[in-house]
Amino acid sequence: MKKIGELFGNVKIPRLRKLFRLMKLTVLFLLISVGCVFANKSYSQNKTLTLHMENTTVKDVLSEIEGQSEFRIMYSGKFIDVERKVSVNMEAQKIEQVLSSLFAGTDVSYTVKDRFIVLVTPELLEEGTFGVFQERSVSGKVTDTGGQPLPGVTVVVKGTTQGTVTNADGDYTLSRIPEDAVLVFSFVGMRTQEVVVGDQTLINVSMEEETIGLEEVVAVGYGTIKRNKVTTPISSVDTERIKTQKTNSLDRSLEGQIAGLSVKQTTGSPGGGSVMSIRGASSIGASSQPLVVIDGIPVQGGFGKEQSALTLLNQADIKSIDVLKGVSATAIYGSRGANGVILVTTESAAEGKTEFAFSASAGIDRMMGREKLDLMNAEEFSQWRIENVQEYEDFYGVPYFNDPDEEKLFYDIYNNPGESTDWYDVMTRVAAKQEYNMNVTHAMKSFSGFFSLGYLDHQGIINETGFERISMRANMAYEPNNAIKVGLNINPTIRTWDGEIGGDRGSIYGSAFMSTPLDGPYIDNGPWERDNSNYYDGEYDLDIWSPGTFSNVNALHAVENTINTTRNINLFFQPSLQITPIHGLVLLTRYNGRIENQNKEYFRPSTVSSVYNPPPQAASGYHQTNNHRSWQWENIVSYDFILKDHSISAMGGYTMERYNDYSVRLNGSQYPNNAVHTINAATEQSGSSSTSQWSMMSYLLRLNYDYQAKYLFTASLRRDGCSRFGEENRWGYFPSISLGWNISKESFFPESSWITNLKIRGDYGTSGNNAIGNYTWIPTLAANNYTLGGQIVNGKRISSIGNASLGWERSKEFDVGLDLILFGGRVNFAFDYYNKITKDMLWGVTLPRSSGFSSIQDNIGEIRNRGAEFQINSTNIKNSNFTWNMDFNISFNRNKVLNLGNVDRILTGARNYSITVPGQPMAMFYGWESLGILNTWDDVHNNATFPTSVPGTPHYANHGGGDIIDDNDKIIIGNPHPAFTGGFNNTFKYKNFDLNIAMSFAHDFDVWCQLEEDVLNLDGVFNVLTEVKERWRSPEKPGNGRIAATFHVTNIDRWENSDWVANTSFIKGQNITLGYSLNNVRFCNALRLYMSAQNVFILTNFRYGNPDANLQGANALQRNFYNYDYPLATTMMFGVDIKF
Description:
Structural class: mainly beta
Helix content: 10-25%
CATH class of the domain at 226-349: Mainly Beta
CATH architecture of the domain at 226-349: Beta Complex
CATH topology of the domain at 226-349: Ferric Hydroxamate Uptake Protein, Chain A, domain 1
CATH superfamily of the domain at 226-349: TonB-dependent receptor, plug domain
Strand content: over 45%
Largest sheet: 22 strands, antiparallel, barrel
């Protein structure tokens, strides 16, 4: 559409000529007046123009004005000479100065109303008056069916651009409306209504809600489809809601949002990722993570820093998220679809819309109270150490000390413990968080673009830790005509992690809370002075020590002086070309490129000790660089057409992709000083490098058919060829089929005021999993030295044996579901039952020693996941002032290992605490069943025990027979799989206020509390839980039956047993957000103020921190493993969102 309007052309009928001119001129001025309604501040008063044009026409000058601005200029070429030659030289002038100069010496006058400009002459004005035909002003109020005012409703005169929007009270006014006009009322989520004006001057409208979701378009692989035609379970996420939560990572915002989607945090550190799974874990050796597709690009996680590719995204850039769970949807991704697919679409510009948005938020993080272990203070620790010596001497009848000086030092210290050190207070802080985002959407007739810039700075609650992210995005499209569309998406992201913290006793965090409370981080904090001055640096006590304990690292000194920084630069770029030669036929070619560089610098100075080893130690460090390059080239053809009541959509494509990774690590040790950290400054240097690559080629087909949107059919087929597999099984086929029946569209279905739509559906198909190493099917070589001719020479040896028949891991799935919409869209209900069997799982099978190799990668066994999902979205209350929307979902999944081929069981994890065996769910907890404490010598003699058992040591059940307890007595002692999981979200709106409460829950699952090996370490070398005061002391003082005697040095209590397993459930307050919104305020179109809290509460019987943590990452065979790790923080944020 041209912005310059030739509105007053020649009229052929003389009698009507004057009337038509007057009507057109009147409409013109009405358009100008209505335009002012949309403007909060006059555009013409602020916009300046710079023009340097020589010997050109007036028409060209007017076109240049429009090109530099948003002005619309209207005139009649009959009355105004726009071919007149002029020269214009102006710098930063307002529109009035430009027009006055341009038409100086002529009879042309102008009217400027914000962005609308009309050029007129006296001759035109003399041809008539504005009162020749009847016009009127129309006003009214727009409400919903409950009588609540609806602000922001668009009211336009049909067939024109004349219109307005309702104010905060739902009121509107339109002036100079012809009596034959038709007003069109439209609003998102409401049915559009048309009203004939006639002789009415007051028109009130009550708008009805549309049937939610029926016409909504959802993303599927390589295309979109209307929700009422979907034949497989696809869940969509409310992206507007999660944008307000301000989490560091999108994956954390998805927890509890989708039925069947599990999200577990692997760490509470800023910038840390999560482990996700859809409908349970279905692989023992390959990844169980869902495939993430961002704007059509399948994205893998990067370099182990994040478990999910969703951590790459800025939430402010997201337009939609669709989760594909059914095999009919996931099979189109073939060998990567077995674990489900998460489709993310980022923002783009809407045609004819220009908008600027800015958001800012700031807040604090504070460690959740339940994350703090109940450890002994200095007085309690000292009392325990003294009692421990006395109990030892009473039981064994011999002195504890052989050296009188050592005994004197011991009692001098523990009888005078002095001030206690709370290592939580030392190591943690109230941390600041701030985030800023700005974006611009701009669309003209042929060009549209979305441009964004985001910055996040998140300090960690552990000192000297933090995360920073700078993200940019440009999504652009150019459409010179209706047949061609050229696109380019660019998304660079820069991320930095500082002070990474591990999750075991050897980590800085773990060692801090095992440290004695008698010693502190600074020299004057300890209750004694040590003679060895090498352990001080003038301020810090460089090791934490007390008599009878090990030397431990000073955690505060370590985090403040250890360099541990990771910087990651990631770039996505996606050029595309789409051609539509005829209606319905679309040809798309798209290139998806990714470049990722990551650099890590680590340096531990000589003053930083390690567990058991006091300083000084030789300084050490390393520099590591990882580089990733990948590309995908997709060529897709789709054709949609309708033949009467038959709708057909076909899609076919061909894709190629290649992935390359290269890493270099340089190590340095024995640094002469702590000042220079470069590798070449180290006395000892070493290095290594690695490179790997893999590629895949695919063909894909899909056919959608429906008859009157009543009978639905979808079929797809994908053929993948992947270099990760042997030549015998390199190509895999992944077909699927699904059917749907919209019963409510049948003539026999009774008309109902409460059933809006009823659909049943089912699908069956095969998908795959190729997430294994790149070279497991071929033998690999390693360096090896040989003796040849009496000399040692360098050579090679076969380090692993290949399997040329290695093939795909396949999942066959059946799903049946029901979609029900009630009360005109007030209630949406979805139910699904599924049964998925994964076979030919990828696993390293143990080989006999005679083979010379430890294992070979092979396809073995079957695992079944079956269950049910329920999801309901409802509008519970909606009246004149108050609205309550609710989302609830719950999932039941049952996992079972059907067989493992020739393997009888799989043991993994620390001390083999996890077992996978046929007939049971995968990754069950494995160990001895604790029966309490052996109380007397009779208990020891009358039960099967360990050879070192004495009264006060653990009593384990004898399941294997015999007189002693050994590995044959181990049994399954816990189940990490919850009985059910889900989420519960409520949104309340009262006038301009809104409140959202998001919760997640899980019921009846077990957690492996690995940290109890340390916090219940009874050797007296580490600080321990106050529960140790309830230990066994004597047959007359048996304690709580869980804590063994602390004076026995048998270590039996530190062996894997059922006391380490905690059965639990939880309800977690994910997010609470309170907001206040205003529309059409003086300086902007929309303003929203809010405060938001994350990780608000956890209601649980779990005895430690976050029961939902999974610190073993994406390893499906080591689940619910709880150890020392970065604690969970409660975040409080305050923010503002502004749209201009």
